[in-house]
Specification:
The chain is α/β, with parallel strands linked by helices. It contains twelve helices and ten strands. It is globular, with a radius of gyration of 18 Å. A six-stranded parallel sheet has the order 4-3-1-2-9-10, with helices on both faces. Strands 6-5-7-8 form a four-stranded parallel sheet, with helices on both faces. The chain has two domains: about 150 residues, 3-Layer(aba) Sandwich (Rossmann fold), CATH 3.40.50; about 120 residues, Rossmann fold (3-Layer(aba) Sandwich), CATH 3.40.50.1860. Helix content is about 50%, strand content about 15%. It binds D-glutamic acid. D-glutamic acid binds next to α3.
Amino acid sequence: MIGIFDSGSGGLTVFRALRDTFPDQRFVYYGDHGNAPYGNRDADTIYEFTVSSLERLFELGCSLIVVACNTAAATGLRRLQQTWLPTRYPDKRVIGVIVPMVEAMTGVPWSAESDSALQNHGKKTVAVFATRYTVESRVFVEEAAKRAPNVNLVQQACPSLVRLIEANAPVQDLRRAVRRYVTLLMRRLGEERLDGVLLGCTHYPLIEDLFAEAIPNDVEIFSQPKVTASSLAGYLARHPEFACGHEPGATFCTSTNPEYITKLAWRFLGDTNMQFNALP
Ligand code: DGL
């Protein structure tokens, strides 16, 4: 089974892309809604919540987990992969959403180390909208600088968005908040042209239409769910042992009231067959 983890409902955007790309796989989704949002918390707390959420998914039988949460990945995915995982679960794997996104945005894959790969990029300016923690971690800026130093990443923290989404806020409140964050970023850009937007939080594709309304028409929005699906396809091709032999389908678990979370998921994904179960 392949696990998908997010602090709340945002990872469902990644789940949807994975289910569409891998109809033969079995997925288990775990949203730590009881502790969301993570993005305004400190690094140690986010790391602790992430470890215990991953443990729950491993206990359910997952052999591979996609951390569909930028904030959790920004806090210490490398630390998890290099220290915690080999000691506690040496046969299991955890992969994230940040590096695939940066690779897609810069057009430079992880394996490209030659100077020519890095220099082949014209100058462009890309906006990153993400949680406060992800922005402060500078993970997107650092990963992009390794691959394409000519890409200028301008970050904007959006500390209220995950809370509003998880609270099922009216669309006009979400629209107002998105406009405010986009305006703040555009003011900082001044005359500089914006070439792309990266939604660096898996909750934000749920309101991608509101971002599209607020940014200039010709600016491309990079889709993290699609990029994650194609990165997982590459991973499973290289490591077919993590593709599952179980019945295809999906199970959804949450650390809080499942009825409320189920209704929220219906609103955003429009799939009324989806039912969350409590997994405190
Ligand atoms: N979906 C998470 C992310 O990608 C949201 C984090 C939060 O809970 O604040 O960053």
